[in-house]
Write a structure and sequence with these properties.
It is a single chain. The chain is an alpha+beta fold and about 260 residues long. The chain is about 30% helix and about 25% strand. The strands form three sheets. The protein has an eight-stranded mixed beta sheet with strand order 4-3-5-6-7-8-9-10, with helices on both faces. A hairpin with a 3-residue loop joins strand 3 and strand 4.
Length: about 260
């Protein structure tokens, strides 16, 4: 991790960071007590922390940019005809949050003309605030970060999402073959794997089931840290993406080949 300081903050990033801070206050208010969750239609949990944090994020951004659209995990799609769309996951890792496991974070991304241009990922318990804008580099707690330069799978650490999703897509055997030849593999889950990747603490992240709000902000951060991000079939990330391979860039083609057989 470099000691280089980040450049001056754009208005987009300034507002995103402000919204992130306000969301943290809401999230930590509920985290300090017993957390109750309800099940959404898809069976995933939602808490008052999720819904209230997303509300304050949208209100903060909309005050500054009233014509922008929003795509939120909890509030759904409120996008207008504007080229600017904010993609929000107020608590990535709600299941951890409910159980007071400290691996949860707020994700805020900005898309312009269907291209991701900004990402913020804030993990309050871990005290890791990562952010990036296209062309400006990636930063953690105001310090510039970069991916590793490891080029061989036997020397690489690979992080992965839930195994059952690989099984559902028929690529579990591919994952097993890959990690069997790697230096190390761990299934940390959710945002944290991407924090590790962008800051040079792991080399590859693979998930077989994601939604765009899970990875929009993290995609910008990893790419600005020098990494490469696609789905498992080498397609670029867009709002319909449902799987992901994120790497230090050097390893990317080798990793993708493992899922093409």
């Amino acid at each position: 991790m470099s000691g280089e300081k980040r450049p001056s903050t754009s208005q987009f990033l300034k507002v995103a960071l402000e919204a992130t801070q306000k969301a943290e206050e809401v999230i930590m208010h509920y985290y300090s007590r017993s957390i109750t969750a309800e099940s959404k239609a898809d069976g995933t949990p939602v808490t008052a922390g999720d819904t209230e944090a997303e509300k304050v994020i949208i209100e903060t951004i909309a005050t500054e940019f009233p014509t922008h659209g929003f795509l939120g995990e909890e509030s759904g799609n409120t996008c207008s005809k504007t080229p600017y769309i904010w993609i929000i996951d107020p608590i990535d890792g709600t299941k951890n949050y409910v159980r007071h496991i400290p691996l949860f974070a707020t994700q805020i991304a900005l898309m312009k003309d269907n291209k991701l241009i900004l990402g913020v990922s804030n993990a309050p318990i871990l005290k890791e605030l990562l952010y990036a804008e296209k062309g400006c580099g990636a930063f953690m707690n105001a310090q510039k970060i970069n991916v590793t330069e490891i080029s061989k799978v036997p020397e690489a650490m690979i992080c992965h999402g839930g195994l059952r999703y690989f099984n559902k897509k028929g690529i579990l055997a591919n994952l097993y073959d890959l990690v069997d030849g790697a230096y190390r593999s761990r299934g940390f889950g959710d945002f944290y794997m991407y924090h590790l990747l962008a800051s040079g603490r792991t080399d590859v992240v693979i998930e077989a089931a994601i939604s765009i709000w899970d990875i929009a902000a993290l995609t910008v951060i990893v790419e600005e840290a020098g990494g490469t991000v696609t789905d498992v079939y080498a397609n670029p990330i867009d709002r319909n993406t449902n799987s992901i391979v994120a790497t230090n860039g050097v390893l990317h083609q080798n990793i993708l080949r493992c899922f093409q057989s």
